[in-house]
Amino acid sequence: MNEADTCRAHVTPKLRAVGWEQYPHSITEQQTFTDGRVEVRGSVVRRRDRKRADYLLRYTRDFPLAVVEAKPESDPPGKGLQQAKEYAEILGLKFAYATNGHRIIEFDYLTGRETELAAYPSPAELFSRLKAGQGLEDGVAEKLLTPYHPVPDNPPRYYQEIAINRAVQAILQGKRRNLLTMATGTGKTLVAFQISWKLWNARWNRTGAYRKPRILFLADRNLLVDDPKDKTFAPFGDARHKIEGEAVKSREIYFAIYQAIAEDSRRPGLYREYPQGFFDLIIVDECHRGSARDDSNWREILEWFEPAYQLGMTATPLREDNRDTYEYFGDPLYTYSLRQGIDDGFLAPYRVHRVVTQADATGWRPGKGEVDRYGRKIPDEEYHTKDFERAIALRARTQAIARHLAEFMGRTDRFAKTIVFCVDQEHADEMRRALNNRNADLVRRHPDYVARVTSEEGKVGTGHLSRFQELETTSPVILTTSQLLTTGVNAPTCKNIVLVRVVNSMTEFKQIIGRGTRIREDYGKTWFNILDYTGSATRNFADPDFDGYPEIEEEIAIDGEGHEIGPEDDDIQEPPPPDYEGEDEGKEGGGKEGGGKEGGGKVIAAPPSPGEPRKFYVDGGHIEIIAHLVYELDAQGNQLRVVQFTDYAGEKVRTLFTSADELQDRWADPLEREEVILELAERGIAFEELAEATGRPDADPLDLLCHLAFDTPLRTRQERADYLRRNQPDFFDQYGPEAREILTALLDKYTDFGPRQFSIPDALQVPPISEHGNVVEIAELFGGAPRMKQAMDQLQGLLYSY
User: What is the DSSP letter of 232?
Assistant: First the structure.
């Protein structure tokens, strides 16, 4: 029996015999639990294979226990054990089974023992072993099995199930400080909701009284609170309340931002109007941003509610800049990284474009005695990337970047939703204006095509953001911001993330990248671009602690008009990384945008007096955009390396073929050629892109591949066809006049369009060949279909014989 027969005849009946598939215990066969990583090669997008377990055994609908891998009955029973263990570890399960239908091998993660069994354990037996191994008392186990809120269109993914169940279990077992680390875009809000739902319906609370818990969802921005309250947490109905200005105490699910309940100049702190033991659980979203910091002004809120169980949620693994968060909440109960999300296919990969202006590459220095727009003399110093829009604002640089971005979107998609991260709110306004004017033709039809979303915009900006997030809206297309949109914004169709400010904090960098990681295949969003005008992305990708990598990275040079500079300028070297000493972005702040210090640039010699502009403004001058390299992760997945698409194609060909002769032999056979084309397509190699990259659309695909991989001469299709006509006249002479015309016409079509013109019967159904009759009539001109196929195959064999 093959594997499917083994499952049907032996495995399923044995599982049913011990109680699996008797409510509520279920068997899920052929359970797919990842979406398959998205790979982008040029313009070719494909998904890798999904991970799929033969059987997933669930104690209840929402509580999986074990995985079973089956192999054909002729295989030894342990053959599938490594695969079963791999899947069990990914799925967070404690039991893994491998079988050939007759014999069963069990691996128990609770004991570390591998055992051969005569029969599968029953659901009750397996759950009893889990309870004993994890110290689950009966009351705790009963509450742990409380169902999720059913969401048929959006059931929890496997990693969300792990996060939910581990958090609920830790709370039920009395662990008072807990942490979940989940990459941006992986559904932390859904996890927080389902944790709350299970505890609420289980009537858990910290005192053990018979009542539903009081839960506070706490964050530092209204964006992070209002959306969950109104959407994800909507099933709680009237139990919800947002704390604003009054200490309402009659609800059960509360939402608040620190600023609304913290101490300020007008009151001692609204949080003090709640008893210290009022809340049973506090969920702190984006906990790395505020209250858990040792020096935070908001830390006192968590300390006031010290009796409550506290669950922190963050997107960033432990780093030096968020160490106090981990010290406060403890080691994560579960970590799901950006890298894992991309590998599983739940998060979008990205292509990085490194764009360098002349000012960023070489620095900018004012002319002798030059003054800014306000008549102030500009200090005679050399200004670099970290200084732009902090110490000095160069309008020419902003205009060049806006031109380049507009041209980039013109080549790709002018309606691709885009977020531009600027240095400050003023810079965001200047960039908005420049982009507006570069897209005036679209702005005439869509007045909000470009919009600024910062705290200064208030409700107007919030309205722009809301429309930007919607799937069906056309505008706004481009949002400019400084820090307001770095976190908590779910924009699933955002295709371009643009960095026009230096980002030194890895925590903040990941938050920014997270604005684009959502996938919406139904709206054509499977990957996104990062356009980096400051070097932040390149520098952060090089960080060994970065846990997610780009699909491909490009470096582009643009001139003062924002136009890309061609390959002839490729010898321009990457400028040295700027000195980022003193930069302090991404820390907690109580200001308008909750951002943090904007320092790091040069200090203006004489601080501006009240009402005086805080930086120098240069409206004139000319700045060019200058360098186009492609980077991709190396074979070990450890670091980025420089590679062009043509180099990539050559390397992949060399992994498939040892020589040009081997490739040529397979290419000459029509059937084997199709296999080669499929093998190359699986690796993201498309001939149209190779022709464009090499500038040789007239070359035969075989010659392109051999030239790139083995440095053979690059022939054109015309040269191959002419050689065949000159050196193989006997081939044509063996056929009658009409058959010769058909073969000649095929060769002409090949010369014009390439080897796909040899496809039968399609090639015979278009003029001028179709003028000789239908497919059957044409075949008769050769003496029948077999002889016609033989002629076609011989034509191709001779064509590729030299």
Answer: I
Strand-pair category, 38-41 with 44-47: antiparallel
The structure tokens 């509580």 sit at 63
Reply yes or no on whether the pLDDT at 267 is more than 50: yes
Q: 635 pLDDT exceeds 50?
A: no
Instruction: Give the confidence band of 556 by pLDDT, cuts at 50, 70, 90.
Output: low
Measured between its terminal Cα atoms, the distance across the chain in Å is 48
Using alpha carbons only, give the angle 348, 349, 353 rounded to the nearest 5 degrees: 130
C-alpha dist (Å) from residue 226 to 154, 241, 419, 453, 774: 21, 10, 21, 17, 67
Cβ burial of 571 (10 Å; 0-12, 13-18, 19+) is: exposed
Integer Cα distance of 488 and 286 in angstroms: 8
Are residues 582 and 599 in contact, defined by beta-carbon separation less than 8 angstroms?
Answer: yes
Q: Any alpha helices (H) in 421-579, and if so which ranges? A: 425-438, 440-445, 458-469, 506-513, 536-541
Write the single-letter amino acid at 87. Y
Q: pLDDT per residue over 578-597, tens digit each?
A: 333 323 333 333 333 333 33
Query: In this predicted structure, what is the pLDDT of residue 146?
Result: 96
Question: Residue 358 is encoded by which pair of tokens?
Answer: 């002349």
How many CB atoms are located within 10 Å of the residue 110 CB?
12
For the packed helices 660-668 and 670-682, what is the interaxial angle rounded to 10 degrees? 120
DSSP H helix total and E strand total for the chain: 29, 26
Burial of 671 (0-12, 13-18, 19+ CB in 10 A): exposed
H-only helix segments in 27-137:
81-91, 123-134
Strand, helix or coil for residue 355:
strand
8 Å CB contact between 530 and 346: no
How far from 765 is each of 524, 772, 776, CA to CA, in Å? 34, 10, 11
The full DSSP string for 495-532 is EEEEE-S----HHHHHHHHGGG---BGGGTBS-EEEEE
Question: What does the pLDDT read at residue 282?
Answer: 95
Q: What is the mean pLDDT of residues 365-382?
A: 90
Rounded to the nearest 10°, the torsion over CA 639, 644, 650, 654 is 0
| Interatomic CA distance for residues 297 and 299, integer angstroms | 6
How far is 71 from 414, CA to CA, in rounded Å? Answer: 51
pTM for the model stands at 0.74
* pLDDT reported for residue 745: 86
Q: Measure Cα distances from 778 to 737, 769, 770, 789 in Å.
A: 12, 8, 8, 11
What one-character DSSP code corresponds to residue 366? Answer: P
CA distance linking residue 376 with residue 616, whole number of Å: 8
Higher per-residue pLDDT: 180 or 738 = 180
Q: Please write the tens of the pLDDT for every residue from 145-194.
A: 999 999 887 889 999 999 999 999 999 999 999 999 998 889 999 999 99
